[in-house]
Structure formats: C-alpha cells, structure tokens
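Sequence, please.
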C-alpha cells in the first residue's frame, strides 16, 4: 500500500484505545447489553451509541428517571474490569507501538484509567508514560480537551500530532484539536464516511524516526 501521509512528519502520535489499538467490543457490548436489558432499553438500538464516549455521558444522555449516572458508570466500569475475555490487540499494533520512542506517543481514551490499564495488559500492549483517561478531563470526546492535554503533556503542539481514531466522536475531537487523523476501520461493522485517510489495521504500516525526533508513517 501507499502510506497516507507521504513527505509529512509529526511531532507525536496520539492513539485512541478501544477499536484503535485493541478491540474490546465483545466485552463492552456484553456488559452494556446486560445493563440495557435491566433498564428496559432496546439493546440492538442502544449498543451502537456506547462507543467512543465516556460511560457516564452514555448513561446521562439517556435521562433515565431515578438513575444516578455516576453510580451506574462506576458499576459498569467495575464489571468491565472483571471481564476481559475477548480483549485483544489489533493486528500490527504491538509492533507499530514498539517502533515509537516513549516520549513521542500517548494513549487518549474515554475509558477510566483502571479499565484502560487492565485492557492494555490483557491485550499485551504497553502502558505509555502519557495516558489521558476519562478522569483527566471535564469534557470528553467529541470535545478536543483530551487530545489538547495529551499534546501538552508530550510538550508538542496539537496541530503537529497525528491522531489514530475509529469513532465519529473521537474523529471530531481530533479535528477540533487541529490534529491530523488516520482512521482505523477493522472493528467497523459498516463503512464510516470520512475525509481522512483510513486503513484496516497496522499490518502494512511502519513508523520511522525522522529529523529532530519527528515521526513518519511508512509502508512496512
């Protein structure tokens, strides 16, 4: 394949987690489906709405009477931490991440830190020095706050970063932060309309360190 960013260098790479470097869809939908049934929701219609945003926001926007979004989100997180059966790395992700200097990449996820760490360990992927999680920002995706914070923690401008994402909310957050975007599509059940370059996974991608520690996407 021809890589999608020829002749462009980046200060850092920022990765969403679920659906982008690992897949936990089976687990997440198993836990959320059980919760939805308990609350009388249409499970089939509800499940597509859970991805890419914080659990508390998913619960809050339902406006269920008598339901405490914070308490429900905490319980869902507890169940997801206990259940990691089916969590696995996306093809090529481990090798791609291993090629990056630790101070040039970060994970930016809507998951709580404990859950994110648990899933990364289950998938056999590293926990980087910079990981922005649900607790670190007041506004989750699609607000740009998480990507702006990650860039700040790495000491680079957000508009010099390449974000790897898989959901509309995450893509919108990256766009609002001014970053370039690459869409990972392996977990998509249906094609996602996007103006950004899209690849299935990392199997055909490599990373190269350029001048001044800059990063380039290459063909493997």
């Amino acid at each position: 394949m021809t890589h999608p960013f020829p002749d462009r260098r980046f200060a850092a790479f920022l990765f969403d987690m679920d659906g982008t470097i690992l897949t936990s869809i089976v687990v997440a939908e198993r836990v959320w489906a059980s919760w939805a049934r308990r609350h009388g929701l249409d499970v089939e219609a509800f499940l597509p709405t859970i991805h890419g945003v914080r659990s508390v926001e998913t619960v809050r926007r339902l406006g269920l009477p008598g339901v405490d979004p914070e308490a429900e989100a905490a319980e869902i997180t507890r169940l997801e931490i206990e259940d990691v059966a089916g969590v696995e790395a996306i093809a090529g992700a481990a090798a791609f991440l291993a090629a990056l200097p630790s101070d040039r990449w970060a994970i930016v996820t809507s998951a709580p830190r404990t859950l994110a760490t648990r899933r990364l360990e289950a998938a056999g992927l590293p926990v980087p020095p910079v990981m922005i999680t649900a607790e670190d920002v007041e506004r989750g995706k699609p607000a740009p706050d998480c990507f702006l914070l990650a860039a700040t923690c790495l000491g680079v401008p957000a508009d010099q970063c390449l974000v790897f994402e898989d959901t509309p909310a995450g893509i919108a957050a990256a766009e609002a932060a001014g970053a370039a975007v690459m869409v990972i599509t392996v977990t998509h059940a249906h094609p996602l309309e996007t103006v950004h370059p899209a690849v299935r996974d990392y199997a055909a991608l490599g990373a190269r360190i350029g001048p001044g520690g800059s990063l380039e996407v290459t063909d493997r």
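The longest strand covers residues 161-165.
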